[in-house]
Amino acid sequence: MIGSLRKKFISISIVSILVVFSGIFFFLLIFTRMQTNRSLDLLTDTISSNDGIFPRFDPSKHHLPIQLLYSDIMAEETRFSTRFFSVWLDDQQEIVDINMDAVSTITEQDVEGYIEKVLKKDTERGWISDYRYKVTDTENGTTVVFVNGIIYKNMANRLLFTALFVLFGSAALIVILTIVVSKWAVRPVAESYEKQRQFITDANHELKTPLTLILSNLDIVESELGKSEWLDDIRSEGERMGLLINQLVTLSRMDESTDSLIQGDFDLSNAVADTVSEFQGLAEEHHYTLTSSISPSIQYHGDESLIRRLTAILLDNAIKYCDPDGKIQLSLTCRRYPVLTVENTYKDVDHLELNRLFDRFYRADKARTFSGSFGIGLSIAQSIVNSHKGNISVYKKNDMIGFRAELK
Q1: Running DSSP on this structure, what letter comes out for residue 57?
Q2: Which of 82, 110, 187, 227 has the maximum number of C-beta atoms within 10 A of its C-beta?
Q3: For the chain, domain boundaries
Q4: Distance CA 171, CA 189 (A)
Q5: pTM of the model
Q6: Which CATH superfamily is domain 264-406 in?
């Protein structure tokens, strides 16, 4: 149980780390893409506003303030480092002129192909291969400016790679620390659970001895005084207490580990069918209709005695909480895994807290009048299913309540 709790703690931590770091990475991805587009759009706007030509540095502006002069010098350096070409189209979207002075790795045929793709997209801005383009309508036609963005893309990719490396390294370090720290994180729970388990074990030894003496002395008293109503009540309550002690010990052992399971291959269909036949007479005694639908020859690897007990618990629960003259249905099917379901009629099913039925000592009867149940049976059933790596759930259907156990 503690090992399972630690695994859940580590799993939740790892998932949380992955979600947060993935969110950070995707934010950086979107941000760098937006910044790349914004930088290239600024260049295409500058070139488009200058009729498809990058503005040149004018030395006659040396009398301007130093800030403006510096801006012009930087613009000149950008002009020499920017690879772009411009295309002019007439009103019929035919190419009139091409300016490829700033590029040397593209041909006029390539330009025609780019223009054809731009016209199909019918958007003002976008990407064609490694080029960011802008379409500008003028009085004389249309100007399309293409700016090579490969440098900006490479810079963005290097930034993303660095961020990914840092995030991955940080995530790995945090996961390692989480695995180490998880031992201390679950230690209080482990200590509390160990004390609880030890208490149940000690209570078993401390209660069983006096209980055995009470029942033994009761036999002696009955042999001397004869049977009486009060002695019968004492015996009934003593046997009830013994049953409770045995169930608590069983539950404690089930939670402790799965090492005690006696696993082997057996015919699951026969095991379930045998258990159903054992409850057939009890169901008839209470005037219930017990029917079963069991797929034949289902083979299973597990603890046969525990699986029989699981079936018995579900059937016993159905008989205890079935409506008068009601019906109980059991089915066993197998697709990927064997699935055992037990349903019974229960008109007050809508008033049940289904999510609490597997809680220990929980009983739907708020007055807690004794009906032969301690509220532990379903907890034992859940522990049996969990020990076989399966899952069990409860559901309601019309006026029926059902339990579904998937055995893996």
Answers
A1: P
A2: 82
A3: 2-152, 187-256, 264-406
A4: 26
A5: 0.52
A6: Histidine kinase-like ATPase, C-terminal domain (3.30.565.10)
